[in-house]
Amino acid sequence: MLLDIADARVELDRPPNAGALLVLTHGAGGGVDTADLLAIRDAAVAAGIAIARVLQPYRVAGRRTPPAPTPQDAAWLPVVAALRRRRGFARVPLVVGGRSNGARVACRTATASGAAAVVALAFPLHPPGRPEKSRLAELDAAGCPTLVVQGDRDPFGMPPAGADREVLVVPGADHSLARGLATTAAAVVAFVTSPVVRARV
Q1: Positions of the chain with pLDDT under 70
Q2: CA distance readout (Å), 47 to 25, 50, 64, 136
Q3: Rounded to 5°, angle at Cα 77 from 58 and 191
Q4: Among 29, 27, 23, 28, which Cα is nearest to 11's?
Q5: How far apart are the first and last CA of the chain?
Q6: Strand pairing partners for 23?
Q7: What is the pLDDT of residue 173?
Q8: How many degrees, rounded to 5, is the angle at CA 9 between CA 99 and CA 112?
Q9: What is the pLDDT of residue 201?
Q10: Helix pair 101-113, 69-84: axis angle to 10 deg
Q11: What are phi and psi of 103, to 5 degrees?
Q12: How are beta strands 8-13 and 50-55 bridged, if at all?
């Protein structure tokens, strides 16, 4: 189902009696049809999870570069809120996430969106070759259980695990996460359906 919500474009796949809502978005210059997002969509629907893949407003408007964090986050939150208000989604776990820049947005806004958990795909811990420019504070800001899926060849760094943060390392994968798709998709489904996430409804 294709929806236009708050200047964003949303691809919503909704199995009957969905047990959770997973809202994912793209990287800075990308879209919602990357191999990892599609693999997660297929696995999620098969597991009874509704999944919304959000093309953010700046990409709908034809821009490749995201705005600064504050306006980007302000544009993202109404989309998540509108999805949450759809029939059948108010009482199931809401998990937000995305790949790369989209993971940053999800982490920064997790508390404000009321998310039970975050899925961070290829989180860009720092610009390539610039470990001193760490974005770990954004990842820490999620404030809820977080699954990070990171390729061991990702030039954007390897986030550390934490008390509420699990890091799945995908061997041979780079920032695209185009390798290990089945592993990534299975890990996301297991996380979204886990007791620790379901307990946060």
Answers
A1: none
A2: 20, 9, 33, 31
A3: 105
A4: 23
A5: 25
A6: 52, 96
A7: 96
A8: 60
A9: 72
A10: 60
A11: -65, -35
A12: antiparallel
Tokens standing for 73?
């986050």
Amino acid at 77: L
Judged on CB neighbours under 10 Å (0-12, 13-18, 19+), 69 is middle
Mean pLDDT of all residues belonging to the chain: 95
Residue found under tokens 């809401």:
94
pLDDT tens-digit map of 139-151: 999 999 999 999 9
| β pairing state of 50-55 and 94-99 | unpaired
Q: Tell me how far the alpha carbon of residue 152 is from its chain's centroid.
A: 19
Q: Where are the alpha helices (DSSP H) in the chain?
A: 35-46, 57-60, 69-84, 101-113, 136-140, 181-192, 195-198
- Sequence length of the chain is 201
Q: What pTM, to 2 d.p., does this model score? A: 0.96
Q: Write the pLDDT tens digit of every residue in 54-78.
A: 999 999 999 999 999 999 999 999 9
